Amino acid sequence: MDVLSQSFRVLGDTTRLRILRLVAQAPLNVTELVSLVGVAQSSVSHHLSKLKGLGLIREERQAGFTYYSLALESDDSRWPLVRLAREAEDAAGDSARLSDLLRAREDRQALNERLLEPGQSWFLWAGALASLLPPLDVADFGCGTGVFSRAMARWARHVWAIDQSEDALSQARTLAQRDALTNITFLREDLHRLSLKGGSMDLVVISQSLHHVEAPAAVVSEAARLLKPGGRLVVLELLPHEEKWVLERLGHRHLGFSPEVLEAALREAGFTSFTRETHARDGASPFRVFLLTGVKPS
Question: What is the DSSP string of 93-150?
Fold first, then answer.
């Protein structure tokens, strides 16, 4: 009863009630709440502290920000109070502003994900170097929408673009048709167990796909099976990080990898002649990538 009484007193403040109502709809950070309720950051932080102190909200770090969300379970005695707050008349128009904010956030997220892909300068340089290569048979593990697959198809003999997402493969096919690329075969398969013939590939590329799979070492072994003697494996991956939000929001299964751990997996699969390169952090991004290559012995 004492906790319930304190909760009533805390929610007697209109701004706190609005904040609770907003975080009950979506996780929000302080900057976003300031823009929504129109009060100073110090005031918003004070209200959040009061709500957190009573266990009404929780905080979680995501992509360098602290997000606040509703902490109550459905059997909490205070849940009817929160339900009333959510159902009350939205005289301040908070819900409409929240909808606009969430749409803008999704747009930014989509842009950030695209920024993880190589830029135009990289593609031009890679294309120039690739023109010096002999025609190769290539497998692109976890091709997504086919960014690398289409780039490699311009110099490869044939590319097998493999992914488990039909939506991603559908987009990849459309983009390949747009670019008039006829030397790509799209496969919806499990990277742990592929139907492709062993010893048939000159090159396997695994670009930021291992953190999506259940057993990275098994996928590396599958790459070794597909490669011809003397064939190469190229792995681009994230270094270890603490951005746990990617597990639920982006479907990651691993928070990056130590290059030493992945190199050990390649060695266990039979690869030799390793090269490794680590990319510097890009601005405020919490993510860093590294490149690891290995050769299947002749």
Answer: -HHHHHHHHHHHHHHHHHHHHHHTS--HHHHHHHHHHHTTSPP-EEEEET-TTTHHHH
**pLDDT for position 2:** 53
* pLDDT per residue as tens digits for the range 26-55: 888 888 888 888 888 888 888 888 888 777
Distance, CA of 235 to CA of 269 (rounded, Å) = 14
Terminal C-alpha separation, the chain:
75
Q: Which is more confidently placed, 124 or 267?
A: 267
- How far is the C-alpha of 128 from the C-alpha of 158, rounded, in Å? 18
β-pairing verdict for 65-70 and 137-141: unpaired
Sole residue written with tokens 């007697």: 12
Is 188 strand, coil or helix?
A: strand
The CB density around residue 73, as the number of other CB atoms within 10 Å, is 7
The average pLDDT across 118-123 equals 51
The CATH code for residues 122-296 is: 3.40.50.150
Give the class (CATH, top level) of 1-114: mainly alpha
Instruction: List Cα–Cα distances, 297 to 102, 138, 223, 273, 291, in angstroms.
Output: 51, 17, 13, 9, 20
**Is the distance from CB of 80 to CB of 19 less than 8 angstroms?**
no
Name 213's Cβ contacts closer than 8 Å, sequence gap at least 6.
142, 191, 192, 219, 253
Collapsing DSSP states into helix, strand and coil, what is residue 230?
strand
Cβ-contact 226, 194 below 8 angstroms:
yes
Domain positions in the chain are: 1-114, 122-296
